[in-house]
Amino acid sequence: MDLFLLLDLLHALSAIAWLAGGAVLALILLTAARDDASARRAVPEADLIGRRVLRPAGLAALMTGLALAGIAGLALQAWVILSAALLLGSLAARRLLLAPAFARAARYPDTASQALALVRWDLAAQLATLALMIARPGWTGAAILAGLATCIALALALLRSLPGEEHEMA
Question: How far is the C-alpha of 118 from the C-alpha of 131, rounded, in Å?
Fold first, then answer.
């Protein structure tokens, strides 16, 4: 098996794990929207999924995807750069914003809804990354990128309208 096929296999497996973790996280958020007790129970679950699934799978998908893009001569394509930026932003936000929010929610359970609101942003970034990977717009595809931005804005608006006490996204 040559290097490209091995990287492609690893990329596909890590992307599947990353997306599956996001799907589980979305289900956790849906159950957390019921009441404050559900939100408090969801925080350690969301933290565990993030640390054990999303972070390693996202990092593996990023590294193998960049290696594949480099080998295929696609490294400067808009969808590659923007997807990598979104994934790096998600990983950084998980480390710099979500980890402290989860720790705060563990100490002060009344802040659980605020921590979970940050998770919604992380899922929105994952959805945007997935959309970029599917649409694969070029730098001249301004209409596609504008449509993608509109879809992200609508998704965030829908996330804000989920039932629950805490509707602030940041």
Answer: 20
